[in-house]
Design a protein that fits this description.
Elements: H1 3-15, H2 18-25, H3 29-43, E1 48-50, E2 55-57, H4 59-86, E3 91-97, H5 99-104, H6 106-117, E4 121-127, H7 130-139, E5 144-147, E6 158-173, E7 184-185, E8 193-197, H8 204-216, E9 221-226, H9 229-237, E10 243-246, E11 257-263, E12 268-276, H10 282-297
Parallel strand pairs: 3-4, 3-5, 7-11, 8-9
Antiparallel strand pairs: 1-2, 5-12, 6-10, 6-11, 6-12
Helix pairs in contact: 1-2, 1-3, 1-4, 2-3, 6-10
């Protein structure tokens, strides 16, 4: 039994005339007759009662037709899904991100623009640390990741796309003496208590801050740690210390926190998209293309 035969049966059931049905199907009438007979032999049941003047469905034919229509509709849906998935219009994208990507506005901008042009693609977002994202992209558990470089080592077959570069700033408690300055020299922070996220040496935002501090001869005294920038900024607002942060942290409004640029410091932090070099999944390829479009417009 073939789908083509079920379609022939459906058209013949609608026309109840071999000549008209063959004409609709674009085949010769004898070919239609042969296909219906072949279908009846395969099923072991007569589907149509034929006389010289009429054609009508048998009881077996009516019951078979109901199932045939459902089968054909499902086959059409399957074909539609396959075609959309092949064009990158359907499927899913697994996205990893670090917390600072969320308040940068870049993660939301790229995903929002992608959803506008790919409404049938499911996006699943996972907040993960940088090392976990690198491992998960490499092993196929996620498709792309929003991270802050650097990483210790790139696995073979992976690459990155820089999405933004921004200054490193300092978050101060409201009323702190340094808030009277328009910009804060790193040397003025020598005796401050610092709040940082938990970090892995040589990875991410901490590595960029460490390089900046080494260049200035500053050794920050870390007294508090938090898991996310939102948490450490809240601790700054509580007066427990100061914290280095990406400039886009200004988007995070926290009571009793004042942000200031760093005077004379050239420290910057990047946000990047990581992905597999030879990605073939159409939905993922189109997401990467959207990120590249964003990067070109920056």
């Amino acid at each position: 039994m073939e789908l083509r035969q079920l379609r022939y049966m459906q058209v013949l059931a609608e026309e109840l005339h071999f000549g008209r049905a063959a004409q609709r199907l674009g085949i010769a009438q004898p070919a239609l007759t042969q296909q219906i007979q072949s279908l009846e032999r395969d099923l072991g049941a007569r589907l149509f009662q034929r006389t010289k003047r009429s054609v009508h469905l048998t009881i077996a034919g009516r019951l078979t037709l109901e199932q045939a229509i459902r089968t054909l509709e499902q086959a059409d849906r399957t074909a539609t899904v396959a075609r959309k998935a092949g064009r990158g219009e359907q499927g899913s994208v697994e996205i990893g991100y670090v917390g600072s990507a969320a308040f940068s506005g870049i993660l939301s901008k790229i995903t929002f623009d992608y959803r506008k042009t790919n409404p049938d693609i499911e996006l699943h977002l996972h907040e993960l640390d940088i090392t976990q994202q690198v491992d998960d992209v490499f092993n196929g558990r996620i498709d792309v990741g929003f991270i802050r470089p650097p990483v210790r080592q790139w696995p073979d077959g992976m690459t990155s796309l820089t999405l933004s570069r921004e200054p490193i700033i300092i978050a101060l408690p409201k009323g702190h003496s340094l808030t009277r300055r328009r910009a804060v020299p790193l040397a003025a922070l020598a005796n401050e208590s610092f709040i940082t996220t938990y970090f892995e040496e040589g990875v991410g935002f901490h590595a960029q801050v460490a390089a900046m501090c080494r260049a200035a001869g500053l050794a920050p005294r870390i007294t508090q740690r938090g898991r996310q920038f939102a948490a450490i900024t809240s601790l700054v607002g509580a007066g427990l210390g100061v914290a280095f942060a990406p400039d886009t942290l200004r988007n995070l409004r926290v009571p009793n926190v004042v942000y200031r640029p760093l005077e004379g410091a050239k420290g910057t932090t990047d946000l990047a998209l990581i992905y597999r070099k030879f990605e073939q999944a159409p939905a993922v390829v189109s997401f990467i293309a959207k990120a590249k479009q964003f990067a070109r417009l920056k």
